[in-house]
Amino acid sequence: MTWITGDEYSGSFDGFCIVDCAVRDRNIFAFALDAIFTDEEVDEEQRNGWDRSLRPKRLITFFRDKPEGARYGAREFEEWGPLRLGAMSAPKSQLLLFEQHGQQVYVVGSGEAGFEVPLNRDNPNLPPFGLVDRIKTFEGHAYLCGAYRSFGKRLGVDRYESYTDAIPEVPEDDPLYLRDGFADFDMFAEDDVYAAGGKGDVWHFNGKTWRQIHLSTNAWLNTVCCGGDGMVYISGYEGRTFMGRDDTWTQIQEGGIYLGWRDMVWFEDRAWAVSENGLWAIKDGKVEFQNHLLEPEIAVCSGNLYVNDGVMLMAGLGGACFRENGEWHSIFTKGCMDKMLLAEAK
User: Fold this and answer.
1) What confidence tens digit (pLDDT) does each residue in 216-233 have?
2) Which residues, 6 or more positions from 153, have their beta carbon under 8 angstroms from its beta carbon?
């Protein structure tokens, strides 16, 4: 199955790189893109002192059940900062795009598209919320976490339920790094949530109150995954990884992974962890590098992961692919598509 043509690629991904991805449902995937500048454009950017994070952005939606020529939709964003992307089916099937500089929100899907009220602390009609670092889908709803130990649920247009107030107030003399989580979260249920960030800053939410959990590390924490095996997986600096639950934890990975992992999810019968440098799987407490087991057109797509509706989407600088029913499927590889466009231009 060919999921993209040269024309579809040139009208969507050409000149951009994937910085985040999401699964709206098993037939609708989305990609947040950042522009790739040529050497000349980089020189101009530096001469003018332009903010590199404000390069043009793009949201691509891929409908894999539609015919060729109607599979890809694009939306451009100018002067937008770094992006975070998520999805939901409740109250409607939509994508949620968050911009970190101005905390702007764009929602699209189910015949609707538009900007919503920025999700920041200056808005008296929205609950307190920090800078969004992660968006995940759970039982159809979009949940968000971010700075200042903020965690909440999207209810509808400009409506969020915040659980931040349930976290005990942090003393003013606490180091800033302890007040700057959460970087990630995951949940077994709405009353069984784990969130982590900062230096070893881990919390559990029982639906009413938060409890700080001791983890024997002061490493910066990046990812959280609640597994189908009943275990929680938390990783940090250089991929240092802990497995456990409640107050019992075991370190299963010492580190040594450059920059650590960006995303960690549970899919099928194991946890998966990813960075731009590759894909790892965690099963029965063992961490195994996967790239040598994958076809090249799959391995090059490492970067970001998103799970929803029976599909695990993986996308990054090298392209995009997905895993479904135990099999990998390549959507595109950037190298192959760029070569094809170059050959067509000659």
Assistant:
1) 998 899 999 999 999 999
2) 141, 142, 143, 144, 160, 161, 163
Cα 128 from Cα 294, distance rounded (Å): 43
Predicted pLDDT at 255: 86
pLDDT at 343: 85
Q: How far apart are CA 97 and CA 112, in angstroms?
A: 14
Q: Is the C-alpha dihedral spanning 179, 99, 240, 139 positive or negative?
A: positive
Q: Which of 87, 201, 69 is nearest to 135 (CA)?
A: 87
Give residue 148's pLDDT.
83
Q: State residue 176's pLDDT score.
A: 58
Q: Answer whether 258's CB lies under 8 Å from 248's CB.
A: no
The percentage of the chain sitting over the pLDDT mark of 70, rounded to a whole number, equals 94
Whether residue 56 has pLDDT greater than 70: yes
**CA–CA gap between residue 38 and residue 35 (Å, rounded):** 10
Nearest to 138 by CA among 321, 241, 315, 266: 266
> Is 60 strand, coil or helix?
strand
Sign of CA dihedral 13, 312, 83, 241: negative
From the CA atom positions of the chain, what is the Rg in Å? 20
Model pLDDT for residues 142-170, shown as the tens digit of each residue: 999 998 888 999 999 999 998 988 887 76
Residue by residue, DSSP assigns 151-165 as EEEEEETTEEEE-GG
Q: What is the dihedral of CA 229, 235, 241, 244, to 10 degrees?
A: -40
Q: How confident is the model at residue 305 (pLDDT cuts 50, 70, 90)?
A: very high
What gap in Å lies between CA 341 and CA 333, rounded to an integer? 13
Please tell me the distance from the alpha carbon of residue 84 to that of residue 236, in angstroms, as a whole number: 19
Nearest residue to 104 via CA among 114, 115, 94, 118: 118
Q: Residue 22 and residue 309: Cα distance in Å, rounded?
A: 11
pLDDT on residue 177: 58
Average predicted confidence (pLDDT) for the chain: 93
Report how far residue 83's alpha carbon sits from residue 104's, in angstroms, rounded to the nearest whole number: 10
